[in-house]
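so i finally got all the pieces together for this one. its three components total, 933 residues if u count the protein bits. some of the lines might not be protein, just check the labels. i wanna see the whole assembly predicted at once instead of chain by chain like last time, that was a mess tbh
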Amino acid sequence: MDIHLRNITMKFQDVYAVQNINTTIKSGQLVSLLGPSGCGKSTTLMLLSGLYKPTSGDIYFGDKNVTNMEAEDRKIGMVFQSYALYPHLSVLKNIMFPLRMEKVPKKEAKERAQAMTKLMHIEHLQDRKPGQLSGGQQQRVAIARALVKEPKLLLLDEPLSNLDARLRLEMREEIRRIQQEIGITAVFVTHDQEEALSISDHVLLMKDGVIQQHSKPQSMYRYPCNRFAAKFLGNPPINLIETKHGQTQEKLHLHTYNQTKQILAAEQRDVTIGLRPEDLYVSSKENHLISGQVIHMETIGRDTMIRVQLQEETVRALIHPDATIQVGQTCYLGIKEENIHYFNTETGIRLTSHEGGSGNGS
Amino acid sequence: MRKEALSKSTIYILLSFGAILMLLPFIWMISTSLKAPNEVMALPPVWIPSELHWENYTEATEIAPFGRYFVNSVIITILSTLGELITTILAAYAFSRINFYGRDVVFAILLGTMMVPSEVLMIPNFVTLSDLGWIDTYKALIIPWTASIFAIFLLRQFFLGIPKELSYAAKVDGCSEFKFLWYVMVPLAKPALITIALLKIIGSWNSFLWPLIMTNSTEMRTLPVGLTAFTTEAGIQYGLLMAASAMVILPMVIIFFLMQKYIVAGVTRAGLKG
Amino acid sequence: MDLNPTKKSTLKGYLYLLPALLILITFNIYPIIKSFVMSLYTDFDFFTGEVFAYGFGNFVEIFQDPNFRIAIVNTVIFVIGVVPLSIVLSLIISLFLNSKIKFRGAFRTIYFLPYVTSVVAISIVWSWIFHYDYGLLNYFLSWFGIDPIAWLRDPQYAMPALIIVSVWKGLGFNIMIMLAGLQTIDEQYYLAAKVDGASAWHRFKSVTLPLLSPTLFFVSIISIINGFKVFDEIFALFDGRPGPGNSALTVVYYIYQKFYEEWQFGLASAAAFVLFIIIFLFTIIQLVLGKKFVHYN
């Protein structure tokens, strides 16, 4: 069942939480709604669930217009950040609850709930109350409860953000495993780019209630369609270097960078250049793009991160740990030309179009 | 605090003395209620009856229909408590979970009317109830007391503390709003509901002026009203009078001992909120 | 984020409110207006519901009625007699109960017990204690060589008797509220004061009292309001009469007499309205001053 959002707008009092969203979520995929807090990703999820009704626009589940259908009739499963388990009911009763609401006979409901606990590896917790469970266990119960009625759509609202780092990784893989095992369409809200990139088939990046980019994780990372997308994805964040149109590029050494030279010459406006730290490498003096004094150096796991002073700004680069570089030295950094991103400084929009990425829609 | 100023033993002595003063009327009531008439009027007073005259209790119920009064009080207390719980649950849900036009205004007006004492409302209510023909019926003693602004306020505060996501989860689970209220909110609000019910039971059982005015016939009297009528009938038979008083007092004392935690919580909440 | 109200949610909201509103409007809100209107009935036939004349005559009449003046004076005396005594006693007891002593729960239960008992029933018990010949109180007084007092028949002693019962009955509630108030005071204040070398009395004066003042204030106002509404105790103590020689005639008792014994609905409503104004004033004082007190916390 594909899900279509058509011209969806949601207004709270006088504030637009979501503005004119058009997109399609393909059947069986796991799609992440990614963005900073207040970008409208949670509102979009609430609209999909039917807990919120859009101010205007239509939502289709397959061919069916469900815009005015109540949440309880949409046959969806939902997992919340705070888990939202019923504190007065045991784990098994929590999982049975949706089935009991559908008037499934008690015996069958119990069997199906028990099957669900098996899938989620929580059989041994059946009789406990939510208050006696750890965060990770509660989340498993919440997922089991969401899936027990075999919904067509699973919605997850920041399901991992209340868990500690290790558990988060584990649950992330667990969610992916289950989603693929039962082949359900899932929408996953998160503000964590790493989470979104690692778990999903598609990522829908939002800002200020507007979709910025909807694409596969890899192409969103490699071909961010605007400066915001480039900045939001990647850690450490992308280096953005502004160039002034028509002036000599003092910060850049374009000697061997013909494509960049051409683009800067062809564009009749200011251009911002984006260089991901992990794409930069230590190069020779002849082939470098940027150079400067190393002002800071630290080892992050297997990589070494350096900060290089480039006139009034600093540039971060992740370099091979074997490179013999010391703080205070001048360092020459190069990059493969296809890894350079170009943005219109004024609008922030990407200049060169590449396959795989797109703006609104997909 | 002042514990060095006053030694601990002084505190114990003073508190115990106060406690005796608090308990004395109860003790004296029970003691008198079990005495033979000659012991009742003995000087110096006899504390422990030489013989336990339980028949004072049966005799009191023979002189005045205390059984009937008791049944009336039980019926009125139970029904007005049930009624109040229902109206309170529904109203508190509306005020805490539904956003509707005029909600804050209606709530403010209700809170405002809380300061009007029921003694002031008694006269127009008497007129209303006589127009309805409800005087001297259960209806007059029950229906006007099936809603309480204070209870709505208390439960609303409790409901507001229940996370919103729970209602979202329930809706997604296919639960209609009404079912959510019944299967999730109400079980979760049990402590608050027990408190509300207990305060209501105590208030309803002990209420006096209202049933005094709204009833005429002996059959419709509640225990407190029947008891004041009995003072004239019993005259100076203090043994019987104390037995009758004990019948009014003891049920609430028992409830209090069983449910003290909830009653104290309710009274304290009422106090701190204003 | 709260969803905006819609027509649908409004309909639903009022549907849920309907049972409560039906009762509250009929028996709480409508009577407020009706009560004021009725106080203006100067000529009225209860049985037909016909009103022949309106005016402020009822107010003029009750203020000229010596009994109403007695009722006001008695009520004020009652309030002055009960409130300070009850506050001081309950403050002392709650301070004791808040210190680290054994049997705290048991003491609390005992002091709170009168709160749940029927005023009428326990007043009848008290009337037996006040008995001239065989009452416990006169018996105890005889230990100190005091002659028997006609508590309930001597106009001079009727009010003290009423005050004793009311203080005894109301102590539990006040203690409960004050204990809750004391529990909100952070232990750190006491530690700080102790480090500063403050004596126990000083700590009470400069820490406990100011921090407890909102609670004390609240309890005082509630006690005053309840004091103005006193009725059940009187009816039961004095066997359906307002004390010997109207010595325990209070405002509510006056309303009761005019209304239920004399069927003077207009006069009763006017008196009820005066009662409402008095209580209203104290409520306003509480709201206005109460807000100020909150800043201390």
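Chain A is about 25% helix and 30% strand.
Confidence is low (pLDDT under 50) at residues 354-362 of chain A.
anyway lmk what u think
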